[in-house]
Design goal:
alpha+beta
């Protein structure tokens, strides 16, 4: 065979081979068009291993959910599936049972009960100002005798205080006896009324009428039992009409007055029980009740005076004694209670960790009420019967940061189509962070940055668009910067870029 024929035969064979390869590729593309693309991760509902998928999400923006797999609109990475058998979502954290045992976690149930919140305050014993008797003269006279009494003495009812000579009484009694002998009942009744108006007690008038003798000297007696607060009478002194002679204060019952802080005043009401212990009688607990809440608050100490009434039949409670009071409150309606140690107080929010089962825990923001006795009232956020972590919360936080979970939880949303990924915050929000420049190319800059708190992002390396190339003037690879960015159309655009340190 000539060289020319051999060359023509070789070309024909090569043409046939190329035609076969091209036809096979065309047939494969038309028969299985999806094979020209990257293989799908599975159907929209199930992965290739048959596990049910709840949604897909970007681990860097986990609060955004998508209803089918694909490439993240935020990062240059594929979306990750969240499976139904994982027992939770991005708003909870899972702790290995072995780690839970090592952490020594202790759970407590949310229970409904009454929060006993006695207000413990100090007070002192005071005399009862509603039991005060003032002894006065009703006519002029003289003091003939003073019995052995002094201020501070305890006297019984009817005890003698002083003997008084009343000259005006002697003349009025003589006139009364003279009219009694006339037999004129009308005049006698008028004379009797005159003796009463002069201040003579009825028993003295009856003695004068019965004996027929004047009695110008009268013994002044204590009208009530109690302590003598004042005794302004001495032997030989003269007295004027209406002059006070003595002041006596009753001792049963007594008052205990206490200063209650303003923040506790709203829980106390008249009629509430009060338990009292006194330093003078250790081990003895007395029971009384709140009888008055005075209307004026002490502006210096920001306290309100509360008055408790206590029986004192044996007279052992003395004015000025120190007392410790436990005042019952008026807000004793059943409420949801959790241990105080179960609450994580951040300063701006109150968080508890609810146990979901299977080693999963979910941080829940709660609204708290009153707190006492190691318990706190939960006004909103929990339901009766839930289990919460009572100890070890901060150890859980060391296993998986709760900050990102709380940020995702506050913006959690339902799965949404890939065609309309919503922003986690308003497009006008400027997000700020610190980072290090990895590369700069035209209007694109790549940064390895720290957490972005406003978006709930952790530390990562990603590329951003520059709003203006001039922002990167003087900035080189390796420099440390502080930057602010907003979400644009499918990208993140840096609008502020400040160099904070040179490269290392």
């Amino acid at each position: 065979m000539s060289l020319h024929k051999q060359t023509m035969l070789l070309l024909a064979v090569l043409a046939a081979l190329l035609a076969g390869i091209g036809g096979g590729y065309w047939f494969a593309m038309h028969r299985h068009p999806a094979s020209a693309e990257a293989p799908a991760a599975g159907s929209a509902d199930h992965a290739t291993d048959g596990r049910k998928v709840l949604y897909w999400y970007d681990p860097m923006v986990p609060n955004q959910h998508f209803d089918r797999p694909g490439k993240s609109p935020f990062m240059d990475m594929q979306l990750v599936p969240r499976y139904a058998d994982e027992g939770g979502d991005a708003t909870s954290v899972k702790i290995d049972p072995g780690v839970m045992q090592n952490l020594g976690l202790r759970l407590a149930r949310v229970e409904r009960g009454v929060l006993a919140t006695p207000v413990e305050v100090a007070g002192s014993v005071q005399w009862n100002d509603r039991q005060v008797a003032v002894v006065q003269t009703r006519t002029a006279g003289f003091v003939e005798r003073v019995y052995a009494r002094a201020p501070g003495d305890m006297v019984a009812k009817g005890a003698p205080l002083a003997d008084l000579l009343m000259p005006d009484w002697a003349g009025a009694q003589a006139e009364f006896l003279a009219l009694r002998n006339t037999g004129d009942s009308t005049l006698l009744q008028a004379a009797r009324e005159r003796l009463k108006l002069l201040g003579m007690p009825p028993e003295l008038i009856a003695k004068v009428e019965a004996t027929g003798q004047t009695r110008p000297v009268i013994t002044i007696r204590a009208p009530i039992a109690g302590a003598i607060q004042a005794l302004d009478v001495r032997s030989g002194m003269s007295l004027g009409a209406g002059m006070p002679l003595a002041r006596i204060n009753g001792i049963d019952p007594v008052w205990i007055e206490a200063a209650v802080p303003e923040h506790s005043a709203g829980t106390i009401a008249v009629g509430n029980p009060a338990h009292v212990t006194l330093a003078a009688y250790p081990g003895v607990r007395l029971t009384g009740k709140v009888t008055a809440i005075l209307p004026e608050m002490n502006i210096d100490s920001r306290t309100l005076r509360v008055r408790v009434e206590l029986p004192n039949h044996d007279g052992r409670l003395r004015a000025g004694m120190f007392a410790q009071l436990g005042l019952g409150t008026s807000n004793d309606a059943p409420a949801l209670l959790v241990p105080s140690e179960a609450v994580i107080r951040t300063g701006t929010r109150n968080i508890v960790l609810a146990a979901l089962g299977g080693g999963r825990f979910q941080p829940i923001e709660v609204k708290l009420g009153r707190e006492a006795g190691g318990k706190v009232v939960v006004l909103d956020g929990l339901t009766e019967g839930q289990s919460v972590v009572a100890s070890g919360q901060f150890l859980i936080d060391s296993e998986a940061s709760l900050k990102g979970i709380l940020a995702r939880q506050s913006n959690a949303d339902v799965p949404m189509p890939m065609s309309k990924p919503p922003a986690t915050t308003s497009a006008a929000t400027l997000h700020e962070a610190d980072g290090r420049v990895e590369s700069i190319s035209g209007k694109e800059i790549t940064l390895s940055h720290g957490p972005v708190q406003s978006l709930g992002w952790g530390a990562m390396t990603m590329s951003f668009q520059l709003a203006q190339p001039a922002l990167a003037a003087g900035i080189q690879k390796g420099d440390r910067v502080h930057f602010g960015f907003r979400k644009g159309d499918g990208s993140f655009v840096i609008e502020q870029l400040v160099k904070t340190g040179g490269g290392q």
